[in-house]
Automatic annotation (TrEMBL), chain A:
InterPro entries: DHS-like_NAD/FAD-binding_dom, ETF_a/b_N, ETF_a/FixB, ETF_asu_C, ETF_asu_C_CS, Rossmann-like_a/b/a_fold
Cited PROSITE patterns: ETF_ALPHA
GO BP, sorted A to Z: fatty acid beta-oxidation using acyl-CoA dehydrogenase
Stated family: Belongs to the ETF alpha-subunit/FixB family.
Domain Electron transfer flavoprotein alpha/beta-subunit N-terminal, residue spans: 3-174
Name of the molecule in the record: Electron transfer flavoprotein alpha subunit apoprotein
Gene Ontology molecular function, alphabetical: electron transfer activity; flavin adenine dinucleotide binding
Pfam families for the chain: ETF, ETF_alpha
Keywords carried by this UniProt record: Electron transport, FAD, Flavoprotein, Transport
Originating species: Desulfopila aestuarii DSM 18488
Annotated coiled-coil segments of the chain: none
Free-text remark on how the cofactor is bound: Binds 1 FAD per dimer.
PANTHER family, A to Z: ELECTRON TRANSFER FLAVOPROTEIN ALPHA (PTHR43153), ELECTRON TRANSFER FLAVOPROTEIN SUBUNIT ALPHA, MITOCHONDRIAL (PTHR43153:SF1)
Binding site for FAD: 194, 219-220, 233-237, 250-257, 271
Phylogenetic lineage: Bacteria, Pseudomonadati, Thermodesulfobacteriota, Desulfobulbia, Desulfobulbales
TrEMBL record, chain B:
Protein name: Electron transfer flavoprotein subunit beta
Alphabetically ordered keywords of this record: Electron transport, Transport
Coiled-coil ranges from the UniProt annotation: none
Family: Belongs to the ETF beta-subunit/FixA family.
Organism ancestry: Bacteria, Pseudomonadati, Thermodesulfobacteriota, Desulfobulbia, Desulfobulbales
Residues in Electron transfer flavoprotein alpha/beta-subunit N-terminal domain copies: 23-214
Amino acid sequence: MKILLIAEYRDGKLLTGYTEQLGFAEKMGAEIVMFLAGSDSALPNYGGKLYLADASSCGEFNPDAHKKMILEVVAKEQPDMVALAHSSYGWDLAPRLAYGMQAAQVSEVVDVQDKLLVVPACNSKLRRSIRCTTGQTVVTLQAGAFKPVELSAAPQVEKVSMTAEGRVIFEGYEAAAAGGVDLTKAEIIVSAGRGIGKPENVAMIAGLAKALGGEYGASRPVVDSAWVEHNRQVGTTGQTVAPKLYVACGISGAIQHLAGMKKSEFVVAINTDKDAPIGEVADVLVVADLMQFVPIFTEKVQAL
Amino acid sequence: MKILVCIKQVPDMESKFKVAAEGTWYDNQDLAWRMNEYDEYAVEQAVRLKEQVGDADLTVLSIGSDKVKETMKKALAMGCDRGAHIADDAAWNKEPFQVAGIIAEYARDKGFDVIFTGMQSQDRGSGQVGVLVAEMLELPSVSTIVDFGYEAGTIIAKRELEGGIKAKVKVQAPAVVTCQLGLNTPRYPTLPNIMKAKKKELLSIPVAELLKVNARMETANMFFPEKKGGGLVLEGEAGELADRLISILKDKTTVLK
């Protein structure tokens, strides 16, 4: 079996996600080739063949151009599978490649069991194993699902002929809002999820954080609702944190949130839903109504 | 201007799920159904675009059994002009390539200027349909948008990347955009608009007329993930739970002095 891995490059830097793609390929026991629209001054550590397009000419984000270049590599290499990260770059590009290759696409692969790809369903409460009926497949891999593999050799670079033509015009990056609290430095974080119900209850979560001597954070829906500012968001599109204690209040535990906090040393989840996926990473799951439990818990912590 | 927004009806994700007897999907009994969260942002943005340009016709499309019409009525009450219900009792078993094929077949000759979809569904979560529809119609597409503007035929959008960074992009209509959470604040339908929505066109089209592509994959098995954490589950009265949690934190962590 041969897998074509698509590495990622952003804002002049090679992203490290390709090491997990290498881990996946190793698990599949596959021969590997790689494609990168990047730069020869930031090459992946991997000893195989690398098809390299110069991002300064073809663009870092140019779906039409990247699709065309990758399909040319596919035509030449005839891989059984093309693997990308399940990221803003990967999930955008994968369906375009799959369409061009007339291939099935399997999104957000978390595991391989009995040679079948496993993906999450229903906010990660369930799993599905997938059987493809096409000769070639395109897959995207969930961040953190496969063990990173770092190979120290330098790749054998083959430059690919480029195109810069594309209908989607990239006009630059907008940096994350700076300033305010730095959650990555907090030893204790108490986070509010959708389960807090209304914005007035943020104060209750902040109160518990203060009683514990920590900071408060929030999951995406709470930030999207503008109940808490973005620099307190924990998850893939916010902060990645690893405090000594993480208390998740009313957070169901979407993959994107878990990816941002699962390295915490000790996790307490407070939730009315015993089956919420947050339970998977929690050391202690307190099955309780936040409105009842948090005020009492806060009071008892203050009394210590 | 002609606008299309595609929505899906999904179970509330807080539901207690069971795997159905045939073993490849969840049991659809005893679930509360709602509009896929990502699609709510898509509908809101489509309605805002219609309000901005004034002279526009906005169609909402959904694939499923008769039950999905309830969710379509919400979209009509939010401001869509007409509904295209693709009647399919086996919609749950369609994979993204087929879903996109159905939508593209419906949209092909209708001249939509902008097609909105959610970036993914909450149940299947493939994140493929919007981009595939664009590929099938040979239109450009922008996925995962958190900001949308439209000016004289040009869409100016921001894509959400990892770590809070955004990418600013521009594309000429006709185009497809897929909407990420937080794109806007979806409106609540008002009572007068809910009443008005009842009178709006909601046509059903048999799926057989639009399904021209074959499935490229199938679910072999649906199952619950193994509980890896093996964490302690505490249940009981709040005061007692608080005491137990404090003693655990004293024992297992260094943060409580």
